[in-house]
Design goal:
Helix content is about 15%, strand content about 50%. By secondary structure, the protein is mainly β. It has a single domain (about 5-60), classed as CRISPR-associated endonuclease Cas1, N-terminal domain (Ribosomal Protein L15, Chain: K, domain 2). The longest helix is centred in the C-terminal third of the chain and has 9 residues, at about 50-60.
């Protein structure tokens, strides 16, 4: 069953490590998920970043990237 991953912490960074999505905030790893586990990644805060590699991996696996405002 596919999941929706949420990026909701200010200063967090979504990157790719070993073919998996990894969300970090400082030195802390908040989550680490394989692309096949995900249906969407939802950003609920403006103060987060995403790497080009993460955008490319999401595109390759047809994972929706959603940016909410408000």
């Amino acid at each position: 069953m596919a999941r929706i991953a949420v990026v909701d912490r200010y200063g967090s960074f979504l990157a790719v490590k070993d073919g998996r999505f990894q969300l970090r905030c400082g030195n802390e790893v908040l989550w680490d998920l394989a692309p096949v586990e995900l249906e969407a990644i939802v950003f609920t805060i403006d103060g987060a970043s995403i790497s080009a590699a993460a955008v490319k991996l999401a595109n390759n696996f047809l994972i929706d990237l959603v940016f909410l405002d408000g």
